[in-house]
Amino acid sequence: MKEKRCMLLPGPVYTPERIRNAMSKQMVERRGEDIKQLSKELIRDLKKVFKTERDVLFFVASGTGGMELALVNTLSPGDKVLALSCGNFGDRFADIAVAMGLNVVVERFPSGKPVDIDCVRKILQKDEEKDIKAVLITHNETSTGVVNDLEAISQLTREHGALSLVDAVSSLGCVDIRTDEWGLDVVVSASQKGLMSAPGIAMVSISPKAWEAVEKSRYPKYYWDIRRFKKFNEEKSLTPYTPAMTAMYGLKEALNMVLEEGYENVLERHRLITKALRAGLEAIGLELLVDEAYASPSVTAVKFPETIDSTAWRKALRNKYWVSTAGGLGDLIDTTFRIGHMGYIGREDIITGLSGIELSLREYGFPVEIGTGVAAAQKVFAE
After folding, report:
1. Which of 142, 179, 182, 306 could form a Cys-Cys staple with 170, CB 3.0–4.6 A?
2. Cβ within 8 Å of residue 19, ≥6 positions away
3. Is 218 annotated as a binding residue?
4. How far apart are CA 342 and CA 145, in angstroms?
5. Which residues contact 383 (CB under 8 A, 6 or more apart)?
6. pLDDT in tens, 253-287
7. 180-191 pLDDT per residue, tens
8. What domains lie within the chain, and their CATH numbers?
9. In whole angstroms, what is the distance from residue 143 CA to residue 282 CA?
């Protein structure tokens, strides 16, 4: 029965059978030809979703580990960085930088709103001495369901001369990222969200400009030294330390599935199900946190009716209707819930999820006409 659960979570996400089967393979020699070939294929396919011809490397880590890796390899203690935050994970990127002893200027934007491009422009133009060495950007803010204008921010960063360090943990595989075209210096992502695999692998793309910064970095590091990974990859098609073979098997099968569907088709699927979900939620009578103009194709934050206990309701939704959603984060923890629609998600998941939400809200006294949300989503799918 558990296989039937409708997992509308912002990660880790539902892992399809093909990927689970791939992860059940036997371990192989860690320096053998099998793992070398797998590493080559992983990097080849990751470049396709990153949309880059530049270096892509992977590590045994979470997305947070990848964010720290980006900082510790391209900067030095005391460097000034601009952290752009519109939610919990933008704050996390800033917190990592603070913990590392960087001089962090945090520019925060209201929850549910994107990074203000004009504000970024003014900050960077004011920095005439070019003291800001890097701009920390959260592409897709998972806590609010906001997608930021990465192309515009990157252009301003390039004009200034700072590095662009991008958290794409919840956007890669769901939101278009044109690493080379937009001139992104370091892009960090992970295996357990849009790429619908298990947690355990962080991956990064690195531009030539970022590699120049790597050579100047004065941070002490051993495991996180990206030069070791580059050297081993170029010379041996291996990682310098024990690889997470099971996670690698799963990620490779996930990339197979993405490329079989066609990556542009995957992105379009995410846009379509987001449109249908938002239409359904609004038809039910729920208020969405984020305007459609900058709504994320991978996660939607919903304002919770004040008359209902959100924690108890989500528990009932999960236990009775088998629909799993996520609570709010940060200053939105008591006022919102989040619906993840990333990775292995299709029309049937949206219809099932909306049906469960309607039924459970009605049980809690919310005035909803059964079927209105489902019908609104179906109308989008039928267009």
Report:
1. 142
2. 196, 197, 198, 250, 253, 254, 257
3. no
4. 12
5. none
6. 999 999 999 999 999 999 999 999 999 999 999 99
7. 999 999 999 999
8. 6-12+262-382 (3.90.1150.10), 17-260 (3.40.640.10)
9. 20
